[in-house]
Amino acid sequence: MNMLESEYRKLLFPFPTVRKIQGDFLLKSNDIIENSQILIAHAPTGIGKTAAVIAPALKNALESDNFVLFVTPKHTQHYIVIETLKRIKSKYKVNFGVSDFIGKKWMCLLPGVDRLSSRDFNELCKDLKRDERCNFFNKVRKGDKLSREASSLLKKLRKGIFHVEEICKFCKEKELCPYEICCELGKEAKVIIADYYHVFEPNVRKAFFIKNKKELENCILIVDEAHALPSRVRKILSMNISNLSLRRAVKEAERFGFVKVSRDIGKILDFFLELVKDKLRDKEEVFVRREEFIKGIEERCEESLQDLIDMFNLIGDEVREVKRRSYVGKLGNFLESWYNQIEGFAKILRRRVSPMLGEFFLLSNKCLDPSLATKEVFERVKSSILMSGTLTPTRMYAKLLGIEERVEFVEYPSPFPKENRLVLIVPETTTKFKRRGEIEYRRIARKCWEIVREIPGNVAIFFPSYEVKDGILQFFSRLCDREILVEKKGMSKVERMELYHRFKELASKGAVLFGVAGASFAEGIDLSGRNLLSVIVVGVPLEKPNLEVQALIDYYEEKFGAGWNFGYIFPAMIKVVQAAGRLIRSERDFGAVILLDERFVWRNYYKCLPKDWKIQVTKNPEKLVKKFFERKLKELEE
After folding, report:
1. What is the mean predicted confidence (pLDDT) over 613-632?
2. Residue 635, Cβ density class (10 Å: 0-12 exposed, 13-18 middle, ≥19 buried)
3. Mean pLDDT across the stretch 41-48?
4. What are phi and psi of 591, to 5 degrees?
5. Residue 377's closest CA among 239, 197, 235?
6. N or C end of the chain, less CB within 10 A?
7. How far is CA 349 from CA 283, 353, 363, 522, 530, in A?
């Protein structure tokens, strides 16, 4: 055993061999943790990120009062972490506790709660527990002590390492609350696996850490898929109300006997509709000033906004004693957000049209600055590693998340052979808004088919939006002789999995998947080997230049002097690289990435592509694609 192998074993590395680059990442992670620093790591697929960070983090936790908190937005990643920890436990015969959490409502055994928003569910859960109306929660304890059923299950769970779905199954059999059982495990755990929401929603974090008897100062925080953290946190901190929810709040207050409150909410609804009439008129969206909205409500209701908020929240608690969701309570939460958040938010009134609801109006308090929630976390944790396969530019993420001190950056190249991936830019067509229409869609469909027919297997084509996808599909389908599978907006998890498995079944024949950059299939599927041979990204998936995007650009320009890049270009190009990352998931995989839009050769966009990509620019991609696959298939035969 050489010196490096001995060092890897000291760090509890669970596998017999260390992959290319993985060893460097393992040692770097250990150095960062030992020195209480923060690492922002661009680490492409194939490096073996999970083992490289979880092993040294666990080693530190076992030798100290620290614990590891691994947060990820992907449920599938929980399995990888759990299996890695099982390997460590088996190989090194070390004992440590593990607790695995997903979103609280997804763990809940009450029927129908999955239809509630996270905020509505959390309020319901709080009320049910306070009033002792949840049988699953009540069965966990008898007085101050754990019940016999809970103690028995915990004894079993502490003997092994279990995925959250397994824990939920055991709890269902014994009619115990899975979240409470996982919190009991968490009190003694050296590793906790959770969702972003548990850490970066301030009120949820406070409750979560108290329940698990943990302190941020002892936390080694590992953030997986960290490229998604800024947008996810902005979404967590954003809130909205509509004229529809206000009407429901009026009726709810009246139904529960709160006549004056019902009248007050009616006055707020009238003011809301006045704003629509005076400001929106024939526009799709307008900004609303914070003070204007507060003043309008206080003048009409003849009470301070804070008093109204307190009243709405109290009534919300009462309503949830009878039903699961309270529209009055939701209004209280929204007004509290509007009142308290002064900087870093955009307040926007929008017109919306729904096939089910018709025209309605939405008032949003949109978070622009994720550091409002993340800065404190990264300042207080013992150490942290943020990692993703698309975490470039790394310094941008430090700025967006408010990480200013004790931070280091590292960018690793892809570990896979460059000759296994063909990367082409085809600067012939575009999905720019001014060019969208039948003529351009026909050109794009024709070019896509010319490429697809030279690929001996499955192809995924990703578009900037569902509208563009559908516009091009009508022309592509007339040319294509393969089965076309289409990702649709609002698909359920079951529908997505059916589409995924069908696509894999067709690998030998070759099928075409039509999806959207930034949506489920472009971000969350793993298709190794011959299950996917090519990804075509059609157009640059820029956000629609609405008021929120403009506010984001202006805010980042004022704060960082980089509004256009941070708020518009970089997020779109991250989606491009994420979509391309569906291809080549192991050292033996090979395939072609084709970027189809004239803007990909423009400097502002080209500079965002990975430095280790060997890119060719061509207007005849079909010839290069055909030659590439002929060569790779010949190599397989030899």
Report:
1. 96
2. exposed
3. 91
4. 175, 180
5. 197
6. C
7. 10, 14, 4, 31, 48
**Banded model confidence at residue 321, pLDDT cuts 50, 70, 90:** confident
Q: Are 222 and 191 in contact (CB under 8 A)?
A: no
The DSSP-derived string for 597-615 is SGGGGSHHHHTTS-TT--E
DSSP-derived 3-state class of residue 140: coil
- Which amino acid would we find at residue 311? M
Q: Which residue has the tokens 């696959």?
A: 629
Q: Give me the helices (H) in 189-342, please.
A: 196-200, 202-211, 229-237, 243-255, 259-275, 290-301, 305-319, 327-340
Handedness of CA 122, 125, 126, 127 (dihedral sign): positive
Tokens of 225: 């898929």
Q: Each residue of 237-247: pLDDT tens digit? A: 999 999 999 99
Total length of the chain = 638
Domains and CATH numbers, the chain: 3-109+117-235+382-411 (3.40.50.300), 239-367 (1.10.275.40), 418-637 (3.40.50.300)
Contacts by residues 290-298 (CB-CB < 8 Å, ≥ 24 positions apart): 290/338, 290/342, 290/347, 293/338, 293/347, 293/363, 294/338, 294/339, 296/271, 297/267, 297/268, 297/271, 297/335
Q: d(Cα 205, Cα 381) in Å, to the nearest integer? A: 13
What is the rounded distance in angstroms from the CA atom of residue 630 to the CA atom of residue 620? 16
Query: Around 74, how many Cα atoms within 13 Å sit in the side-chain half-sphere?
Result: 18
pTM over 0.85: yes
Residue 346: φ, ψ to 5°: -115, 130
Give the distance from CA 577 to its chain's centroid. Answer: 16
Q: Cis bond leading into 610, ω under 30°?
A: no
CA angle 214, 216, 217 (to 5 degrees): 110
Report the alpha-carbon distance of residue 178 to residue 44 in Å, rounded: 34
**Alpha carbons 254 and 459: distance in angstroms, whole number:** 56
**Average pLDDT of the chain, as a whole number:** 94
